[in-house]
Task: inverse folding
């Protein structure tokens, strides 16, 4: 008889297989529906043309109409609202259909950018991403659906774009963008949209665009704020012109650490699509030499002038020697002191003697060991979820609140004997190590960090413990 664990695994595999099949069927239905709409949209025109001369001359077809601009009858109908705009019209749409745009990142920024670029009629649309769809993506990464959880973001995004517009070419690059492949991938496109969320990627993408002579539409969103600009466009500055040296690694936050209101990257991503469309279609004034700043709480959007191209810029300056080979050899992680990887940072600041695993801590709780557990996460994190009887003292206020720790330890000693231990926990096990270092320097020699923090507790001790 198959064990309950083996049976559960089989059921999960069947569910995943059915989800894959469902996604393929839905995609095929959407493609056929798009084809049907194209055919239906042509039918009235064909009927009208056939009845023009009432049989006294050869019937006219769509091919006989004056389509000198090269747009097909289906394209005219699909993009008719674009064509009706005097400031956009036939030529801009024609330019758009001939263009190619690469979007690096299919996350919060890339999702709306990709959807609108596909819908607008970009001829060839490339997607670069190596991550998979997760449940905590859903509130902002609107290109993905729950059906694709656990599957590559590139495939999910490509299917969504194809379902909106089956007439354009979608190219999937299911890989992390690195110096080893960036030149090859980005050289295939006219315009690049940076929809990443980390400093080394921003420098790398900008430098590559300069080396290849590609305009770059760069956006960022964090918390309740966003910003947008266009780099390396018709003599405009590049990213390094504005930021020749990277900010401190501690100043570079990601959504996974600091949070973001889902609609904020949606707004910035839409604006990135707009700038890319303007460049590709050759209409309007792209946001070069200007930076758009968005504040969601006050609903304020303002544009500020930024410095122009710097003659001393290491990459695009007058005397630069930065070429493709230097780009390939450049270490962007070392330059920015932060990782290209989207996985959370894992510090190693303490000796093994100053750390215990979450399983070991669980055993000490069960045994009734007198101790104090200090949770050093910010208060608003602590309110989401916490371990029982933990004391919330955020890392930023640790030194000022040391007397509270001493008092708590004294209370444990009085209630359960001498020698109460001190343990420190955080979300992932980084801030807790910093806290233990600080506590040991202040005389709490036996303070220990819980390796991996609450994530380790959820993974190794209690699978039902909520994670965020």
Result:
């Amino acid at each position: 008889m198959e064990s309950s664990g083996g049976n559960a695994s089989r059921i999960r595999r069947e569910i995943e297989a059915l989800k894959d099949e469902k996604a393929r069927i839905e995609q095929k239905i959407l493609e056929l529906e798009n084809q049907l709409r194209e055919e239906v949209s042509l039918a009235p025109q064909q009927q009208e043309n056939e009845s023009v001369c009432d049989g006294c001359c050869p019937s006219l077809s769509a091919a006989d109409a004056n389509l000198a601009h090269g747009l097909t009858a289906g394209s005219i109908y699909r993009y008719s609202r674009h064509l009706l705009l005097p400031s956009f019209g036939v030529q801009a749409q024609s330019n758009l259909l001939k263009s190619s745009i690469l979007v690096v990142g299919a996350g919060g920024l890339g999702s709306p950018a990709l959807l609108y670029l596909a819908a607008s009629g970009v001829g060839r649309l490339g997607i670069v991403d190596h991550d998979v769809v997760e449940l905590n993506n859903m509130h902002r990464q609107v290109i993905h659906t729950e059906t694709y959880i656990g599957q590559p973001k590139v495939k999910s995004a490509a299917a969504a774009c194809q379902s909106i517009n089956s007439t354009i070419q979608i190219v999937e690059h299911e890989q992390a963008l690195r110096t080893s492949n960036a030149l090859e991938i980005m050289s295939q496109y006219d315009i690049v949209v940076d929809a990443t969320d980390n400093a080394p990627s921003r420098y790398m993408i900008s430098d590559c665009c300069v080396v290849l002579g590609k305009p770059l539409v760069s956006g960022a969103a964090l918390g309740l704020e966003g910003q947008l600009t266009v780099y390396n466009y018709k003599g405009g500055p590049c990213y390094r012109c504005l930021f020749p040296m990277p900010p401190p690694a501690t100043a570079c936050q990601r959504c996974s650490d600091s949070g973001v209101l889902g609609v904020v990257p949606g707004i910035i991503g839409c604006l990135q699509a707009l700038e890319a469309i303007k460049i590709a279609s050759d209409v309007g004034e792209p946001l070069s030499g200007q930076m758009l700043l968005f504040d969601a709480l006050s609903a304020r959007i303002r544009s500020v002038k930024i410095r122009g191209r710097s003659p001393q810029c290491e990459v695009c300056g007058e005397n630069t020697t930065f070429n493709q080979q230097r780009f390939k050899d450049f270490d962007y992680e070392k330059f920015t002191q932060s990782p290209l990887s989207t996985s959370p940072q894992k510090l190693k600041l303490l000796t093994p003697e100053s750390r215990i695993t979450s399983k070991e801590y669980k055993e000490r709780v069960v045994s009734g060991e007198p101790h104090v557990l200090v949770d050093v996460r910010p208060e608003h994190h602590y309110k989401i979820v916490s371990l029982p009887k933990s004391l919330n003292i955020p890392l930023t206020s640790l030194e000022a609140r040391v007397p509270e720790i001493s008092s708590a330890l004294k209370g444990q000693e009085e209630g359960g004997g001498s020698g109460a231990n001190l343990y420190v926990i955080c979300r992932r096990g980084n801030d807790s190590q910093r806290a233990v270092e600080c506590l040991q320097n202040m005389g709490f020699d036996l303070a220990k960090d819980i390796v991996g923090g609450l994530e380790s507790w959820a993974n190794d001790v209690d699978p039902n413990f909520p994670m965020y």
Observations:
- The two ends are 38 Å apart (CA to CA).
- The chain has three domains: 1-46, 76-336, 352-460.
- Residues 1-46 form one domain.
- The chain has a mean pLDDT of 89.
